[in-house]
Amino acid sequence: MNDTDIATERRTATPAELGFSMPAEFAPHDACWMLWPQRPDNWRYGAKPAQAAFVAVARAIAESETVFVGVNDDQYENARNQLPSRIRVIELSSNDAWMRDVGPTFLTHPDGRLAMVDWEFNAWGGLNGGLYFPWDKDRRIRQKIAEVLGIERFITPLVVEGGAIHVDGEGTLITTEECLLNPNRNPDLAKPEIERLLCAYLGVEKIIWLPRGCFQDETDGHVDNLCCFVAPGEVALTWTDDDSDPQHAISREALGILEAATDARGRRLTVHKLPMPGPLTIAETEASGVDRLSSSRPRQPGDRMAASYVNFYIGNSVVVMPRLDPAHDDEAHAILENLFPGRRVVAVDAREILLGGGNIHCITQQQPRV
């Protein structure tokens, strides 16, 4: 029996009991994992514009660390020819391209071991508001990556997506009630039980609950679109001063909770406001390029998108942020430069990713250094 078999069979000890925990994203990485977009009912024009955006993100992160891009077999040659040779392209079938949510949550151990949490995945709500069907290939991704890396895999029945959680690496986790307490995720679990499981599988000690995620976020309010840790005791928060915009009340509510909170080490949090782009909506030409299928979420002209500059990726030497709105791009870039003085901030045109329902953080998953 190999290590993966042992990890799969283990039911008595949790990762936290064994000394594992989830590092912060700003801690050193060994690699970044991504997937390749192709489904025509989510990405317009056969995903060609989205593929170009994914290539730009992968190029930027590859300055900083190894990048793996998983592709379906029928897209392997296309992806290999578009991506630089230093980026590793592997056959890894998926239903769509959101590695943050369908990929593993990596854990590390003080003795140098790497492991992962294999959450349950139901495509952001299953048959009760989920975004597509089926999601069978997505559910196998974590097991495949565990076998590629030869690491322990801790299986949990808790439905959690990677974008629903942010940690500081020092015992604190931030999430939203809108997502993890949604009846389409874990209807049989109360809040205290979900907290217990998060602590047991991620090695955290304190959970800060924000009520809601960004306005009309189709993931049911993922925290990574609203708020994230940028350093121990410091968070970035999506913000708008326009009190007529629905996002204003959401961000103001979150600000009050964050400023009143302390982390697992007893520190008060410093909150850095990042301006909200837009509001941004889907254009007629953008909606018309998407196939309409009953098994996936429709893209309608005029629909507001949950655009956020908080949805960036922190690499070893770069921070890759979305370029979304000329009115706010430069301001957001400057704020991130101040927050990450030791990293180069790279802005990537990301509207094509946003049109698919997420952004740069949503399509990436860091593998921590051990």
Automatic annotation (TrEMBL):
The keyword DNA-binding does not apply. GO terms for biological process: putrescine biosynthetic process. Keywords: Hydrolase. It catalyses: agmatine + H2O = N-carbamoylputrescine + NH4(+). The active site is at C362 (amidino-cysteine intermediate). GO terms for molecular function: agmatine deiminase activity; protein-arginine deiminase activity. Signal peptide: none annotated. Pfam families: PAD_porph. Its EC number is 3.5.3.12. Belongs to the agmatine deiminase family. This is Putative agmatine deiminase. The gene is aguA.
